[in-house]
């Protein structure tokens, strides 16, 4: 696989949208290359006294609409190409939901599970120290992503504020509530995906649905709980180790609790503190993806559905809670099969939307009730979903291309408002 493969695939998605929605050539130019890319070496004193240097990245992809926004990923496979691609997607995701943000992303190449808590804290503070000159509440605003969480964001905002000698909660979102985090950030991604699914469900011809979820982490679990609460059946879930199928539908909260207590995925129901097993089967990861369900929600990592396995997909709708779970090659196969893909830049935008609410609250120094967060999130997600659905219908294009078109309209307007060659020539 070439160094630039993920980014090259991301660009193909943009090219499809540019083919049906013409933007000013300068807008296109601005969207092709990241504005700033930083690679750092982070020295960390390990618990045994040795020194290790970890590679870290921060990419500020584009700031046409405002300061760049995007999470920080800790994973042993993190590369510059991946961070750049994720920063690119953030640019379009923020534009899709109409946030006053550009796109950015960060990452550290590390297996966080191999570090002690103290080592993880030193690494997180060290990363922020290295990128402190490139981030800020009106410049570039990080947040959690895969294998980073509110605890880590707490260390990071503390470190940044120490370096700047100024308490700066707005520099990072996804913080603990006690350090200026927002209520409702924890389940925002799954909840946003749920609002998108619910508002479009009938238009897509789905009633009470059978749903399979790949990836039983933050995004997948919260989506599953909300979907179950309105009567959908979650018939299969998986994590990195295993996958289960349960015809009658799992109780998501019980399976989540069992996994927390034992580390294992099993269909159980709790009565008090006693878990009783419900009839279910262990299946393979590939079998989960190929189940006959109404909705498949990939909520793990990139490239879950590729040219190799797309033909076996039987779901009617794919709700992309993960970033980049369907490759462009798979997109083409799914489109031909009539499978509707609700794209990541819409389906998982709930997280960044509540991050935006957190940043607004930090700026105001006034904190909202949970109901306010839910009401405002619902309104934003539904508005974006309906706008994209209408473009999809009017332009007879996929929902992904429609989402890029919706984003391009806002990015192009901002680019033109900042001055164009045509304007320059008239002066
Ligand atoms: P997480 O770490 O909480 O959960 C990921 C889950 O996926 C874990 O249960 C893990 O075991 C599982 N997994 C990993 N590889 C798998 C595989 N091959 N098959 C099945 N399961 C596998 O992460 P998360 O925060 O839920 O993020 C999941 C995805 O959603 C990522 O792509 C992330 O970029 C995206 N996302 C998350 C947020 C957010 O706010 N959490 C926001 C936007 C996008």
What topology does this entry show?
Layout lengths: L4 H16 L4 H8 L3 E10 L5 E12 L5 E8 L4 H17 L5 E8 L7 H15 L8 E5 L5 H15 L23 H14 L8 E5 L3 H12 L3 E6 L4 E3 L6 H11 L5 E4 L2 E4 L3 E3 L1 H5 L5 E4 L18 E3 L8 H10 L2 E3 L1 H4 L2 H15 L5 H25 L4 H19 L3 H6 L1
Parallel strand pairs: 3-4, 3-5, 6-7, 6-12, 12-13, 13-14
Antiparallel strand pairs: 1-2, 2-4, 7-8, 8-11, 9-10
The structure holds nicotinamide-adenine-dinucleotide.
The site of nicotinamide-adenine-dinucleotide has 23 residues, from helix 7.
Describe the structure.
This protein has helices at 5-20, 25-32, 80-96, 117-131, 150-164, 188-201, 218-229, 252-262, 285-289, 328-337, 344-347, 350-364, 370-394, 399-417, 421-426, and strands at 36-45, 51-62, 68-75, 102-109, 140-144, 210-214, 233-238, 243-245, 268-271, 274-277, 281-283, 295-298, 317-319, 340-342. It is an alpha/beta fold. The protein has 2 domains: 34-179, Leucine Dehydrogenase, chain A, domain 1 (Rossmann fold); 188-347, 3-Layer(aba) Sandwich (Rossmann fold), CATH 3.40.50.720. The strands form 3 sheets. The chain has a 7-stranded mixed sheet, with helices on both faces. The chain has a 5-stranded mixed sheet with strand order 1-2-4-3-5. A two-stranded antiparallel sheet has the order 9-10. Strand 1 and strand 2 form a beta hairpin. The radius of gyration is 21 Å and the shape is globular. 51% of the residues are buried.
